[in-house]
Write a structure and sequence with these properties.
single chain; mainly beta; Immunoglobulin-like; 24-stranded antiparallel β-barrel; 8-stranded mixed sheet; about 5% helix
């Protein structure tokens, strides 16, 4: 603290002196502020605006700017790493009791070639832009980032863990204005102190960086320079001096909203008493943000509305594992970084994902008894309220606290005019606590994590849910030898409890399969009412320099279970992974930038079975004309598969290989093309082809169109179909396990249109036509565990496969007989062939009619049809996208931002 006060005092005495660049123009102990990477950072001086605050109009003609000398020394990060910037940039900083002000002049030798594209907030587009980043905590790990392009489009995010990219869900209220002239372009920013986080001290030193992107040259210039072979971001910032007596702003922001929804379903159901095809809903809610201190912020929401987010993409999942969906809801996206336990650098392992916020407000997990009537089943669980506390304590701990309560939900049943209410989701409380302490100048951190889920189960029909689930974890990271190397370690613990039905489901889940008959290291116990487990990870990496390498090991015990609030697909795993890579950052005769890497890994279950062995290589290169190519090869070897039979004995995963390649055109151009192709094959005759293409067109600065068609076709020789109880199979497998080959096709055409009238008025259109088919062939059963030996029905001597047809001649089922007149019974299997067609999309008109206040007009559409004809015909399938039920929702939402 003494050093900081002395530095600030000396800085204030130098207001009339030239700007501070690579070293301060006065005698100070620069070693006191030297970074852990061994470098002495540049210094800049913020000047108090005592003669009045500058007007934010982008003209830079206010008196404060004339009396403030700029910082000018910028260095290229790309394309010529380490060389001086090709265009001059001047940046000035001022402040008062309300805000930080930044003025930037971007000189341009060819002003007519300045790239500028309109977009909604956070969509800078393919543009020139200026960026200022503040490490106001001065922890060398956190940065609050503010961007603006020549047309005034703003972008902001907060990054943690010394990363350059972070949370785009953070939307502070700030101002920016730009102008263009014969010298280039200018930007003027006003960032209220209430939107930043900083310590409560008289004199302060902040980390700061300035960044300029020159799109036509693909040039990236930094004032606080770091090279392409360095790892980290905030740890390379310069220092901002001169900040003194910053007031602690009162930060109470209230955002009430009102919304109305009209839904139309076609075809309607005139006999359905709950929804005849039309309904209207009104909602009221409130979001608030309160600054408890200059470092701690409390966010709250009551009856939140998330109607303006994108629809989830359509997909077909034939695995035993849950599909992961990205979080898009603003309340949960903002500040999400603090709850992660990811590892630094190139380390190939990380901590468990204890928080998967899509669990909060999910669709109810129970279902009503229809009683041969109509059911009104809620599509999501109501979030009664949620609070989130984030920031930093006076003791230097970064904290994140999230608590949400979801309502008790009921489905209403109408059976011949008699109404019933069945509970389908209990009242539930979700709580998350994250605390992280940085020390050693940001080179080390210690994190603590804990979650709790508590359900009030008042209905025996919901006993399949756990009554309580608790997790806890500790993670540690350390960078040493001037941040060249990173070390990471994490441990976690889980405990769940509930009725025997709930714990039986947990034991039998695809994450662990306790019921496996050949697993002697864990036991399925149907009388258990609790389950506990642990996980651990350890990794090391070399992050700095042209050559990088990393190793990591992890282990997850069979009983580890975090899916009540986190996300986890597998337990019962121990892994080892390694990586080595090299980067060429200096332009050569062919490439401007290139990388090559190789990796390998293996995994075992706790019974000693090796379940993964794989190696792979990849390479990337950007040509001198800014086109780029990428490619790679991977090989997986034959290993045991303890999940193949989904609770049965161990099977075998065949050896396989895959190769991929992609090419991308010059991203600076108004038309950009990307193509990716992948081919895979395995020793059992399985194969797959995947093609993805993307075309982005920016015909004017206000319009952007992108289309991303993808097509995949694959033949999988070991597709699990069904497990059957059969006493005659006890000697070998315990059950009969029916498999098939499946020929799958899928095609989607994801299209986006963005029309931006002004930075505060935009229209977004999203559409995803999707078609998928699956044809099951060569039904067969596994003959023996730990083999790929199958008895194919209808091909093996004595066996038969008999189709059972509908009156129209289509196949309704198959009768499977493995041994003719032998002791094994005939099994009737319903035809699993499928076809799925859907169209999902939405249109969002967004108008920020005043800073922080927004009007949304939203149209959402979803239509789909399902069948059993697996024939794939792209043209016909797309014409039949909406032959089934269609659902159209029209919504309007208005919120109003108040700062009190």
């Amino acid at each position: 603290m003494v050093v900081i006060n002395v530095l600030a005092a000396l800085a204030l005495q130098q207001l009339a002196m030239p700007p501070i660049h690579s070293a301060p123009p006065f005698a100070v102990d620069t070693a006191a502020l030297r970074h852990n990477n061994g470098r002495t950072p540049p210094f800049a001086l913020a000047v108090r605006a005592t003669g009045g605050s500058p007007r934010i109009d982008g003209r830079l003609d206010d008196p404060i700017w004339a009396s403030t000398e700029p910082v000018t020394r910028f260095t290229q990060f790309a394309p010529a790493d380490g060389e001086s910037a090709t265009e001059r940039t001047e940046v000035r900083v001022a402040y008062d009791d309300e805000a930080i002000y930044v003025a930037a002049r971007m000189f341009e030798s060819e002003p007519a070639k300045i790239a500028a594209q309109l977009g909604r907030r956070d969509a800078i587009g393919q543009s020139d832009f200026f960026e200022v980043d503040f490490d106001s905590y001065h922890d060398h790990r956190t940065s609050f980032q503010f961007y603006v392009n020549p047309l005034g489009v703003k972008r902001d995010l907060v990054a943690s863990n010394d990363a350059g990219y972070g949370d785009l869900g953070w939307d502070p209220v700030w101002e920016a204005a730009t102008t263009r002239d014969s010298l280039g372009w200018t930007a003027e920013l006003r960032i209220p102190l209430s939107q930043l986080r900083f310590p409560n001290t008289r004199a302060q030193v902040w980390g700061v960086n300035f960044y300029r992107n020159i799109q036509r040259k693909a040039e990236q210039d930094f004032w606080g320079y770091f090279s392409q072979t360095d790892q980290g971001y905030a740890s390379f910032f310069g220092h901002l001096l001169g900040l003194e007596n910053l007031p602690q702003p009162r930060r109470l922001e209230v955002l009430p909203y009102v919304s109305g929804v009209a839904e139309r379903i076609d075809p309607g159901a005139p006999n359905n008493p709950f929804n005849d095809g039309s309904r209207e809903i009104g909602r009221l809610g409130l979001d608030l943000k309160y600054g408890l201190t200059s470092n701690l912020t409390l966010n709250g929401t009551v009856n939140p509305d998330f109607g303006q987010v994108d629809a989830d993409p359509a997909q077909v999942n034939l695995t035993a594992y849950e599909t992961y969906l990205s979080e898009l809801r603003p309340f949960f996206v903002e500040g999400a970084d603090i709850f992660s336990t990811t590892s630094p650098g190139f380390i190939p392992v990380s901590g468990a994902q204890f928080l998967y916020s899509r669990r909060i407000g999910r669709a109810p997990q129970g279902y009503a008894d229809a009683r041969s009537g109509f059911v009104d089943q809620p599509s999501s669980t109501t979030i009664l309220g949620a609070t989130k506390l984030t920031g930093r304590t006076a003791g230097g701990w970064s904290v994140g606290l999230l608590d949400a309560v979801t309502a008790r939900e009921f489905a209403t049943v109408d059976s011949a005019g008699v109404r019933f209410r069945d509970e389908v989701e209990p009242l539930t409380n979700y709580a998350v606590l994250r605390a992280k302490r940085e020390f050693g100048g940001g080179s080390s951190s210690l994190g603590l994590m804990g979650t709790a889920v508590n359900r009030r189960l008042d209905d025996d029909r919901l006993d399949f849910l756990r009554t309580a689930a608790y997790t806890g974890g500790v993670d540690f990271s350390h960078r040493f030898s001037r941040n060249r190397y990173s070390l990471f370690a994490a441990v976690g613990y889980s405990y769940i409890q509930g009725d025997t039905l709930a714990i039986q489901a947990a034991q039998r889940s695809s994450a662990r399969y306790y019921q496996r008959p050949d697993a002697d290291y864990h036991t399925y116990d149907p009388t258990r009412t609790s389950l506990a487990g642990w996980n651990a990870a350890l990794g090391f990496s070399r992050d700095q320099g042209s050559t990088n390498y990393a190793v990591g090991v992890s282990a997850t015990s069979p009983g580890f279970e975090i899916n009540d609030l986190g996300y986890q697909t597998r337990a019962d795993r121990a892994t080892a992974n390694a990586f080595v890579g090299h980067r060429w950052t200096r332009p050569g005769r062919l490439f401007r930038f290139a990388t090559f890497s190789a990796s390998g890994g293996a995994a075992w279950n706790f019974g000693g079975d090796r379940t993964t062995t794989s190696v792979g290589t990849s390479a990337y290169g950007q040509f001198l004309n800014f086109w780029s190519v990428n490619g790679g090869f991977s090989r997986s070897f034959r290993v045991a598969n303890d999940a193949l039979l989904r609770g049965g004995p161990v099977g075998i995963s065949p050896s396989s290989w895959s190769v991929y390649g992609s090419a991308q055109s010059d991203y600076r151009k108004p038309v950009q093309v990307y193509v990716n192709y992948q081919h895979s094959a395995n020793e059992l005759g399985g194969w797959g082809n995947y093609l993805y293409t993307s075309l982005t067109i920016r015909p004017t600065p206000t319009i952007s169109i992108s289309a991303g068609p993808s097509y995949s076709v694959s033949l999988t020789p070991q597709q699990y179909v069904r497990g059957l109880t059969d006493a005659t199979a006890e000697a070998t497998l315990g059950r009969r396990y029916v498999f098939a080959e499946i020929l799958q096709h899928s095609l989607d055409l994801t299209t986006r249109l963005n029309v931006t009238v002004t930075p505060s008025l935009s229209l977004q259109l999203y559409l995803q036509p999707f078609v998928a088919t699956g044809e099951y062939r060569r039904f067969k059963e596994l003959v023996a565990p730990r083999t790929t030996d199958f008895l194919v029905y209808g091909e093996a001597p004595g066996s038969s496969l008999t189709p059972v047809t509908n009156p129209d001649g289509s196949v309704a089922a198959y009768d499977l007989d493995p041994d003719g007149a032998g002791p094994r019974s005939v099994v009737r299997l319903g035809n699993p062939d499928f076809s799925s067609r859907s169209l999902r999309g939405n249109a969002v008109l967004r108008w920020e009619y005043r800073p922080g206040s927004t009007l949304f007009l939203v149209w959402t559409t979803a239509c789909s049809s399902f069948g059993s004809n697996p024939a794939f015909n792209a043209g016909q399938d797309f014409r039949q996208l909406c032959q089934g039920k269609s659902d159209n929702v029209f919504a309007v939402k208005l919120n109003y931002w108040l700062s009190l």
